[in-house]
Write a structure and sequence with these properties.
With about 110 residues, the protein is mainly alpha-helical. About 50% of the residues lie in helices and about 5% in strands.
Amino acid sequence: MLKLPLTLIQPAELAASRMWIDNWQRMLPYLVANRGLISPALSRAIERFLRSPRRLLAIEREFSTGDPILVRAAVFGLLHAGRARAEGLRTDALSLLAEFVAVESVT
C-alpha cells in the first residue's frame, strides 16, 4: 500500500483563507480554458508592465488591443507561476481594483 502524507486543515484555518480560496476558484477557469492560448510575448509584456503595482483595470486597459480574456488569463497565469503577487486577494474579493505587481524585475 502506498503511504501518502496527510495534512489536516482545521475549520478555523480554512475560514481564515476563505477569500483566497474563493478568488482562486474564480481565477482557475481562466487558466484552464485558455491554457496554450496565451503567448509568451503577452505574458512578458504584462510582467514588465507590473514592475510597479497595477490594478487589473489598468492592465486590461493597457493591453486593450488584445483579447481581454487572454489578458486576464495571462495576469492570473503570472500569479499562479509565482511571477506576480496580489496580496490583497487574500482579504478582498477579486475585482477590477485588485492590484498585481511583478515579483522580480523583468528586462
